[in-house]
Amino acid sequence: MSTDVGSDIIEALADLSVPNALDAVMRGVSEGQDGRVIAEELFSSIRDLILIGSGVTEIIPPVENEKQVIKKLHNLKGMFAIQEEIGDAINRMSIGTDSRILLEIALVKAFKSLKEIRAASSSKKQLSSGSSSTSTNQKSSDSSTTIPSGSGRRRVMRD
């Protein structure tokens, strides 16, 4: 696989750009590369990023800005999701189906997984920022005075 094709696919994954990833695959195939070879080398490149993300320093990064790419891929969780989809496609390629089609489908599935991971990450950030504002509200309510009312409910009066 041309390094440009592989790094272009990885960059497209990091940017969640389905068209750029599929264009890179098409470019590789039009240059005479087999879809299975592209998939296997992509699998290896993602493995390298996983090792780099795990702290291994003896690996030559498959992309120039590997730390930024790893972060955009949601660290190990996102990279494992990508590798799982690519690995499944490589296994299916052994039954003789068009390798380019299987790689493209695997990339689309990987994008779906990355979007789900990104959405879950965004939700967690919103929840944690919401809980910090809740704790701020709790602190301010601690300085309030509670006055019992006749109906059994408590009314809170602020200073």
Q: Taking strands numbered 1, 2, ... along the chain, how are they ordered across the largest sheet?
A: 1-2
Structural class: mainly alpha
* Average pLDDT rating: 82
Distance between the termini: 69 Å
Q: How would you sum up the global shape?
A: globular
**What count of helical segments does DSSP give?**
6
Portion in beta strands: 5-15%
Q: Spans of 5+ residues with little confidence (pLDDT < 50)?
A: 133-149, 154-159
The whole-angstrom Rg is: 24 Å
Please describe the biggest sheet, giving its number of strands, its sense, and whether it closes into a barrel: 2 strands, antiparallel
* Total beta-strand segments: 2
H/E element sequence: HHHHHHEE
> What's the helical proportion of residues?
over 70%
How would you portray this structure in words?
The protein is mainly alpha-helical. It is 72% helix and 5% strand. A hairpin with a 5-residue loop joins strand 1 and strand 2 (154-157). Helix 1 runs antiparallel to helix 2, helix 2 packs antiparallel against helix 6 (99-142) and helix 5 packs antiparallel against helix 6. The longest helix is centred in the C-terminal third of the chain and has 44 residues, at 99-142. The chain is globular and about 50 Å long.
